[in-house]
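seq:
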Amino acid sequence: METKPKNREWVKNAAIIFLAVLLVLTFFSNTIMNRSLPEVATAYVQSNSITARVRGTGTVESQGVYEVKATETREIRAVMIKSGQTIEAGDVLFVLGEGDSAEIEAAQEQLRQLKLSYSQTAVGATNYSGQLQKAQSRYDAAVAAEAAALAELNGNPDFQSAQAALTSAQDKLASAQLNYTLANSTAMQSVGNLIFSFNEFETSCSAQGLDTLALNDVEYALNSAREALSAADGSANSVAVAVDKIQSAEQGVLMYELAISASVTPELADKLAALKTCFTQSQNYLVGAGGSSLMDSVNEQHEAQERYNGASTQYEGFSSLFTEKYNSAVAERNAAEAALKSLRDSADDYGRQAALTGLSLQDLKYQIERAQEKLDSLTGGSENQITSNVSGTVASVAVTAGTTATKDQVIATIEVPDMGYTVSFSVTTDQARRLRPGDSAEVTSYYWGSHIDATLSAIKNDPKNPLTNKLLEFDVSGDVAAGAQLTISIGERSASYDLVIPNSAIRSDSNGKFVYVIQAKNSALGNRYFARRVNVEVLASDDNNSAVTGNLDYGDYVITTSSAPIKSGDQVRMAEG
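struct:
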């Protein structure tokens, strides 16, 4: 009895389908994986100059506080002041004698209003001749200062030498950049010729019936070399990557030549010889001897950039010292000239205004004298009054009407603006080390229309953090009052640093500040990029960049932004473009 063989056709079909799906997934695995990775933007580490600024916020304090004390134990009949009130020397602060408190308050308010009107009118009065004399003196001084600044600028040999050195460095840098552009273009053309020669060789192999699967890695390496040069940013790293890829491709061709040596026809031998020549030419254009390779132009450009940075730093130092001084003198002379012309053009108007103001002041003075006499009669004279010995602003009042003040008791405090105001805040010792007393600062938190000047007066130990911090103390003047919060910004001197990166690249956690550096790893499917944590110390910062120290090299790529949170060791995808 014959046994009929079982039908196994479906098993063969299933195996074919499975292998086909596996092949497709393997081919597209790199693309699928890249789409799932976080996309990151990068910037490269470079050398640059940083002009850092130290910022902080502090409370305005008066340098002079006058204490008003009771000379004997007396009852406070009336309090004539309140906190925040501006007073003049001789103003009545407290009434100690007899009298009706309501009448005293009314008389005091009438006297205050009259004195206020007198002060406002006096402020509006104009001493024309005095103002004209001051304006003329200001203009004469500004003209002399401008001439002195110009003579100092033109006669300084260091400034002239620095300017000439900067011009020379600029010319050399421009020449080096042009050489790099030409060398990169030549290298790109040679790699293009290499790829064209390879494609002809591969086509000939296929036409002869040879298996060209082993040439896929060569094609990938050549395309990678061209991409490295296309993205070249003037760094030696890009050239080294391209050379490595070309050498890898050359080795692949040599191995393939051995594999097909028995099948090489004369035509194919010619194609192979031409391909080898292209390999040699491309590598010579990239790193060959003779001083005209792309690597030579990269080094030339880097050296020219270093010379330019040094010359620029030296020139900026002299420029800030002399040029800014001259420009400031010119601006002051223009302003003084405009003010003097304005006064001369308004002589008639000032004369009429001065006459009217004089009449108003005479009348107000008479009314003030009568009001003072009425107040004295109600309070019993000066023996029953406590008056102010200074002009200023009432900071605090410690008693109220009806209470008794004991001898030597402080019953009020007065801030004396003539003694000035101060603001202080804490900074790190490293920040304070770059500052000097006398440096000018900028107040960034005052309202439009007001003006406040600030000068660093002292650098002291911070009593709260004496080991790590210093206390910056500033003298402030202008439209300011005690108790106000001011934000002050002061600039450090410009300095050059070897490792400068964008502020957005710096991150921090409980272990300190760090950056993520891109680390490339080669694989059969191309480069893989990974984020590697590098701890850094910030030496100086401005609004955009920071100078750092750490395990970084010039030209390293640091991550500035990412489409998703990342950590050290994560694989990432480089942003396109």
